[in-house]
Design brief:
With about 375 residues, this protein is an alpha+beta fold. The chain is built from 8 helices and 20 strands. The strands form 4 sheets. Strands 6-7-8-3-9-10 form a 6-stranded mixed β-sheet, with helices on both faces. Strands 13-12-11-14-20 form a 5-stranded antiparallel β-sheet, with no helix packed on it. The C terminus is likely disordered. Bound molecules: adenosine-5'-triphosphate (ATP).
């Protein structure tokens, strides 16, 4: 089935004149056979992108192109797209097979052929043998598999997933992630998906586009968004926990953590050091890049997350305090109150410039801390 290429250019949607656009000059390339995630908090415009792409809503400006063809004025059912929503929206009175065969039947495919194809797609979503059951007799996870089979049976040039797995519990969600990975290998579809969950974007997508208040903040592979966020807003949306306010001078960041070398030359000036908790190691005080006190310990399965408070020594970085989060190794524990060292590998240090006169407040105010 291999998918087509999707190109969104300058997409803008203003619902009411004078109001902030729901989406503002949004551009994105989704190459054929790739999976791109749009990631953002509630109300950031994610569904607006999908609705405009699918033709369910009209842009105020901008274009949607599939394989180079401009889709302006093309009705949703002729765009070569299929969409899976958070709720599966199956026909409860039809059998599972006939739900999947529905698009073929509407296209005039004979019933027998449509049903045979439906069975093939049910096999693909690991529901072979379920075709004869009434759709209302399925569990939530099975229903969502049928919705996916129905979308794939339409052989879309582009598959759109709108928070398709977010209503499922964690175990089912993970199963769906694996299934989608498997379907990508077999069918090579082009997928544009929307999620508010960075772990889901990480599990599924080659690239993510981070959206906030209708504005695209950054696009890139998840690993580079995690490690090199363009702003504090992106850092926070991707679960970043450590932000240390300071100043860059001659390639070093000065803060209560001390004077820390940076992996790359950045301009001098106020800057917030961000470092992923997964990259920070807790050591003995003698071995750390800085020394602090454990103020909080949170258990997360086999690993724990600690917050360490570091007080500046009054040198270049001043005498204030800074908090650094670190993920401990499996089974490791350090009690609150312990004095520990922290190692922040040079390659994992990243700074985000702050506009002059601010003290590290977010460049995008709407994002709340998720401590
Ligand atoms: N028909 C409409 N009329 C007016 N404003 C709208 C309309 N549809 C969406 N909006 C506004 O546009 C903005 C973006 O909405 P959108 O549904 O795209 O966000 P979202 O990121 O998908 O949010 P969620 O994750 O909660 O679904 C929101 O502020 C929303 O209130």
């Amino acid at each position: 089935m291999s998918g087509g290429s999707l190109k969104l250019t300058g997409l803008t949607r203003v619902h009411r004149p004078g109001q902030r656009p729901a989406l503002d000059d949004f551009s994105l390339d989704v190459p054929a056979g790739s999976c791109v995630a749009i990631l953002g908090p509630s109300g950031s415009g994610k569904s607006t992108v999908l609705r405009l792409t699918a033709g369910l809503d009209e842009p105020t400006a901008g274009t949607v192109r599939v394989d180079g063809a401009d889709l302006a004025g093309v009705v949703p059912e002729r765009r070569g797209m299929a969409m899976v929503f958070q709720r599966p929206l199956l026909f409860p009175h039809l059998s599972v097979r006939d739900n999947v065969a529905f698009a073929d039947r509407v296209r005039g495919v004979p019933r027998r052929t449509a049903r045979r194809r439906a069975e093939e797609f049910l096999e693909l979503v690991q529901l072979g043998g379920y075709g004869g059951r009434p759709a209302r007799a399925l569990s939530g996870g099975q229903e969502q598999r049928v919705a996916l089979a129905r979308a794939l049976a339409a052989e879309p040039r582009v598959l759109l997933l709108d928070e398709a797995f977010s209503a499922l519990d964690a175990a089912l969600r993970e199963e769906m992630h694996e299934l989608l990975g498997d379907l990508r290998m077999r069918l090579d579809p082009t997928i544009l998906l929307v999620t508010h969950d960075h772990a889901e974007a990480d599990a599924l997508a080659d690239t993510a586009a981070v959206l906030d208040e209708g504005v695209l903040l950054q696009t890139g592979p998840m690993r580079s968004l995690y490690a090199r966020p363009a702003s504090l807003a992106v850092c926070r949306l991707l679960g970043g926990r450590t932000e240390v306010t300071g100043v860059v001078r001659e390639g070093r960041h000065e803060s209560p953590l001390g004077t820390l070398e940076l992996p790359a030359r950045v301009p001098d000036g106020p800057a917030v050091l961000v470092v992923r908790h997964e990259a920070v190691t807790v050591t003995s005080p003698a071995d750390g890049d800085c020394v602090g006190t454990v103020v909080r310990l949170r258990r997360r399965g086999l690993r724990s997350l600690v917050t360490v408070e570091v007080t500046g020594d009054g040198g270049a970085g001043g005498a204030g305090t800074a908090s650094v989060d670190a993920e401990l190794g499996p089974g490791e524990d350090v009690p609150p109150g312990a004095t520990v060292g922290l190692r922040l590998p040079v390659a994992d240090r990243w700074v985000v410039a702050t506009p002059a006169g601010t003290t590290g407040s977010p460049t995008t105010a709407a994002v709340s801390r998720r401590r």
